[in-house]
């Protein structure tokens, strides 16, 4: 399938998931995960009308960002080593993987030095799998209380990764758990401003995530494909 068809197909599936759950398709943003493909393919993605690009390795992403002269809106979606923060700050507007306090401090320090700001999702390990990054759900409140003091890092929502399942339905409790956590944090207003966003859902499980309230889905294989063009 050509890129335009894949995009059309994904949009239809998002719209159907929204219809099933009483949501509007405009509430769901698509991050095209380009980590498997070249800068040229990434350029084609941007030309297809997608504006948001997701990457997970600074060493690969930064040359791509430079090749594309920073067109688009860039989302950092993978585990981020603190010593790499300086490479991506000012280039990536969104960090989906804020998973520890030392990273928040490094982001604040580097954003201040660069005179920029960054929007972050607090990554939460809802499933509790040892292999998953993210803070434990019960740590979110104290983390946000501290994060509210940061000047340059703005937490806009939560992110999670569901376990790999053959049946996407099995991921539902994880996505629902993230939404319920966000609602609970908003109810106590611990951060001082509402957490509006939920980054959840990948190629294999995005429809369930949308039904459970995702405001950003991160799509690689299904949308971008794995091929190099
Ligand atoms: C690779 C990746 C994705 C996209 O995965 P697909 O299954 O290819 O859609 C989404 N989120 C994160 C954090 C990733 O690393």
UniProtKB/TrEMBL annotation:
<dbReference type="GO" id="GO:0030170">
    <property type="term" value="F:pyridoxal phosphate binding"/>
</dbReference>
<dbReference type="InterPro" id="IPR001608">
    <property type="entry name" value="Ala_racemase_N"/>
</dbReference>
<keyword id="KW-0663">Pyridoxal phosphate</keyword>
<feature type="domain" description="Alanine racemase N-terminal">
    <location>
        <begin position="27"/>
        <end position="227"/>
    </location>
</feature>
<dbReference type="Pfam" id="PF01168">
    <property type="entry name" value="Ala_racemase_N"/>
</dbReference>
<comment type="similarity">
    <text>Belongs to the pyridoxal phosphate-binding protein YggS/PROSC family.</text>
</comment>
<feature type="modified residue" description="N6-(pyridoxal phosphate)lysine">
    <location>
        <position position="35"/>
    </location>
</feature>
<comment type="function">
    <text>Pyridoxal 5'-phosphate (PLP)-binding protein, which is involved in PLP homeostasis.</text>
</comment>
<protein>
    <recommendedName>
        <fullName>Pyridoxal phosphate homeostasis protein</fullName>
    </recommendedName>
</protein>
<dbReference type="InterPro" id="IPR029066">
    <property type="entry name" value="PLP-binding_barrel"/>
</dbReference>
<dbReference type="InterPro" id="IPR011078">
    <property type="entry name" value="PyrdxlP_homeostasis"/>
</dbReference>
